[in-house]
Amino acid sequence: MGVLNLELIFDHMGHFGRLQIFLYFICAYQNVSCGIHYVSTIFMLITPEYTCKPPGEVKRAVFQNVSHWRLEEILTLLSPGQKDHISVELQDGEIWELTRCSRIWRENMLHLDYEYDGYEHNISCSDGYVYDQSKWENTAVTMWDLVCDQKWYADMIQPFIMLGVLLGAIIFAYLSDR
Fold it and tell me: Where are the transmembrane segments (predicted)?
């Protein structure tokens, strides 16, 4: 069947009209939602500013020698990539330095200063993390604490989704040809 015969069939049946336009947009509609779904992981996996959660109730906090803010308010001041820490005094008098991925217990509990040269104990964040919720209330990262040593889980979600799309395309293409 040549091109000329195909044109004769279109002349008899009708060329690209309203029905074909309608069918095109019905098929394109599902592709738009699929694209939005792929891009949504970018927003679901966003990592807000965070710090290690203190092991008790915070009495007062110091960040760069400013002490009149709450811990949640200080989180908005942290700069990404900087080695800042927050010094906190707990209700029981213990003093801790909170960093992104660890907390440091100060042996000398006399003064709550930002700079400290005394003996310290470095402890992992076993109680979780405190997140800046001024921009995003909940993300997958904040719900499952996918930061520090578990950050690679968040980094692998998008590649696994794309691997599923690839395998689904291969499997269902094969099944549709049967």
Answer: 21-46, 156-175
